[in-house]
Amino acid sequence: MIKDFFSNLFGRNNDPKSIVSFDVVDSIYSYLYNEENRLEIKLKGIYDTVSVNLYSFPNSFNNEEAQNGIKKAGLKNAYEVLNELYKKLNIGAISEEDIQAELEFDYIHIQFYTQPTPEMKKHLKHVLHNFVIFFCCTNSLETNDFRILYNNNYFLDYVGGILDTEYIDIKDPKNDVQKLGFKEFERVLQGICQYMQIELPEGIQLPSQESLLPEEVDINQGTFEEFIKLVSRGNVEEKLLQKQAKKLLKNFKKEAKEYHKIVKNHWSFFESIDCWNSDWKFDPEDAEYFISEMIGEDLNFEYPEETYSHDLFPYIQSALEKRDLELMTYDTQGDNYLFFVANKNEVDRILELSELTKIEINQL
Questions:
Q1: DSSP per-residue letters across 279-299
Q2: Mean local confidence (pLDDT), 195-205
Q3: Can you give the residue ranges of the DUF6630 domain (predicted)?
Q4: Rounded to the nearest 10 degrees, how much is the dihedral formed by the CA atoms of 171, 175, 179, 180?
Q5: Is the dihedral of CA 268, 44, 350, 177 positive or negative?
Q6: Degrees, nearest 5: CA angle 87-90-91
Q7: 109 with 131: CB under 8 angstroms?
Q8: Distance set, CA 113 to CA 32, 171, 225, 352, 354 (Å)
Q9: Phi, psi at residue 69, to the nearest 5°?
Q10: What is the pLDDT of residues 287-332, one digit of tens each?
Q11: Contact, 185 vs 129, CB < 8 A?
Q12: Which whole-number Å values give the CA distances from 288 to 188, 271, 291, 359, in the listed order?
C-alpha cells in the first residue's frame, strides 16, 4: 500500500509545537501499516473506546455493503468516492492511468466520544467525533503533509458517512461541538502515541502531562463498596453495603453479555438506595417531589411554563448546585431514567468507578 503523491494548495501541517503535525500522524500511520491496522484503545477521560483504523481505497470498499453505498451515492467505484473527498481537500484527482494500475491510497479514521455541550445534553448523552486523515504532498514529490475531514455523525452507511464529512482546520473550529472535538483530538492523539509507544519530537506542547492510558486496577469488593457509598452519599447501612457490593462484584465477574442479565443486579442495587425510576416523560412536580424525597429536604426550582422532562435538567441542576449536589442517572439502555443524587465534588470519581465497574452512569 502507498500513500498518495498528489500536491495541493495548502501550507504544510508540521507545526513543531503541535501534536497535530505530520511527524506525529506519520508515526501513527507507520504503526498501523506495520503492526496492527485496527485498534480499540481505552483512554482516561474518554467514554467507551477510541477507534483507530487504517483503511485504503479501493481495497477497503471491496465488499457488498460498501459497493451498495457507492451505488446509492450515484458513483461508479471507490476511486470516484476518493475523488469526491479530494475535491473537498483541494487535492488533485486520481488519474485514469493510476486507476487502471489499481494503485492503493491509505487513510486513517479516528473515532471517539466526548461529553455533549450543555445545549446538546437535552438530546444526547455523548457526541461522536470522526477525524478522517488523508496524506498528500505540499511543494514536494514525496508525502509530507495531511488533510483532515470531519463530522460528528454515525457512519451507519460508511460511504454516505465519509462523503458527508467536511474539510476542517484544526485551529479554527466553527462551532461549540467542533471546539470540543478538536481540543479533545489533541489528547486522543497523545493517548494513541502513548499506546503505540511512539516517541514524540522534543518541543511539542502536550495536552496532558500525565499518562492517558488507564492503569491496571484490581476490581474487588472494596471498589464496589466505594461506588455504593458515593452514589448513596454515604446513606447506606454497613450490612447492606457489603451485601450489595458482593452481589455487584459477582455480577461483574460473570461478564454477562445479555442485557437483562447485566442489569438485573444493578436494578436491585439501585432499589436499595434513594433513587427515582421514571419514564422518559415527567412533570416538574414529579421532579420536585421525588428529588425532595431523595435529598431529605424540599427542593423547589424555577422553570419556564410548559417545560417538561429532559428540558427541566438545567433548572434542576441549578437548584441542586446551590446545595453542592448533582442529579445523575444509571444508563438503563432503555426509554426510562433511573435517577440518583450525588455530591458534586464526588461526580468525577463516580464516573471513574462507573468505567471500572461497568455500571454505566451518565451526567445529565
A1: ES---HHHHHHHHHHHHTS--
A2: 91
A3: 224-361
A4: -160
A5: negative
A6: 90
A7: yes
A8: 21, 20, 28, 16, 16
A9: -65, -40
A10: 899 999 999 999 888 888 888 888 889 899 999 999 999 999 988 7
A11: yes
A12: 40, 19, 5, 26
Which string of DSSP letters, residue by residue, matches 224-238? HHHHHHHHTTT-S-H
Q: Cell 471517539 belongs to which residue?
A: 112
Separation between Cα atoms, residue 355 and residue 361, nearest integer Å = 8
Contact 321, 299 (CB under 8 A): no
Query: What is the spatial distance between Cα 150 and Cα 147, in angstroms, rounded to a whole number?
Result: 10
Give alpha helix (H) positions in the chain: 22-34, 64-72, 78-89, 96-100, 158-163, 176-196, 221-231, 238-254, 259-271, 284-295, 313-321, 347-357
Q: How far apart are CA 90 and CA 53, in angstroms?
A: 23
What pTM was estimated for this model as a whole? Answer: 0.69
Q: What are the domain boundaries of the chain?
A: 22-196, 221-363
Give the containing element (helix H, strand E) for 54: strand 50-57
Beta strands across the sheet bearing 276-279:
276-279, 336-343, 325-330, 361-363
Q: 179 and 169 in contact (C-beta within 8 Å)? A: no
Span 69-85, average pLDDT: 96
Strand bridging mode 127-136 / 105-114? antiparallel
Q: Give me 221's grid cell.
A: 469488593
Instruction: Tell me 12's DSSP state.
Output: P
How many other CB atoms are there within 10 angstroms of residue 16's CB atom? Answer: 11
Amino acid at 215: E
Q: What is the pLDDT of residues 329-362, one digit of tens each?
A: 988 777 788 899 999 999 989 998 998 888 888 8
Output the pLDDT for position 332: 79
